[in-house]
Amino acid sequence: MHHVNLIIAKDPAEAGRLAADIFQELINAKPDCVLGLATGSTPLPLYRELIQREKDGKLSFAKVRSANLDEYKGLSGDHPQSYRYFMNENLFNHISIDPANTMVPSGLVEDADAMCAAYEAAIEAMGGIDIQLLGIGHDGHIGFNEPCDHFPAATHEVELEEITRQANKRFFNSIDEVPTAAYTMGCGTVMAARKVLLIATGKDKAEIVKQSFFGPVTPMVPASILQFHPDCTVIVDEAAASALK
Ligand code: F6R
């Protein structure tokens, strides 16, 4: 039995519009809602759509709050490859959200454990995450929760797998510049969100979509835990759905 609500869109642009519909409905119902946000290529059509919809007066980010999934260890928010920079460039700078209401884990801290604990506490203090947006890695990772022997509970530091570093190296000058560690919400943090929305687009995601949502729930495929979330929507485009019958 699969609890995830699977939606098949024609292409990445339509996936972005369908995801934007879900965000728009939430933001209009709860103007000060807490959005759990993600970086990467997958959310870009959604972010472009949300920017346009606010310009068109369909929603307002003025009171919205946000918490991002993850950040590279060792990169400052000014570094063009940091996730803070990505969020500013691709979303926050173009909407009315108060920068003070946006949280991204800090990549430059002395005490990683304290920062991670404070991040969890800050999410709780905001009343928890109303909707958590996710992409998915080719190995099934969500955030930077990589395949391992357990589902990490809370925000923590992770060493990055080679496959993930290779997948992200296109954003850096060379593989040597790709950080070797990151901070990420845990699978438990994601599961505590009231609603989860995962987007997967492209043929290269087809196999992991099938494994994650139509295979066994196992920490070797971190996204598979979403089968146990009571309100999880998965939006795939036709290419990412191509391994499903
Ligand atoms: C990003 C994140 C990652 C990505 C995943 C897919 O904040 O946490 O888990 O969602 O690596 O990346 P793209 O969308 O670039 O294929």
Topology:
Blueprint: E1 5-9, H1 12-29, E2 34-37, H2 44-55, E3 65-68, E4 70-72, H3 83-90, E5 102-103, H4 112-125, E6 131-134, E7 156-159, H5 162-168, E8 181-184, H6 187-191, E9 195-200, H7 206-214, E10 232-237
Parallel strand pairs: 1-10, 2-3, 2-6, 3-5, 6-9, 9-10
Antiparallel strand pairs: 4-8, 7-8
Helix pairs in contact: 1-2
The structure holds fructose -6-phosphate.
What's the short version?
The protein is an alpha/beta fold.
What does this structure look like?
With 245 residues, this protein is an alpha/beta fold. The chain has one domain: Rossmann fold. The protein contains seven helices and ten strands. Strands 1-10-9-6-2-3-5 form a seven-stranded parallel β-sheet, with helices on one face. It has a three-stranded antiparallel β-sheet with strand order 4-8-7, with helices on one face. Helix 2 links the parallel strand 2 and strand 3. It starts with a strand and ends in an 8-residue tail after the last strand. It binds fructose -6-phosphate. The site of fructose -6-phosphate has 14 residues, from loops. Fructose -6-phosphate binds next to loops.
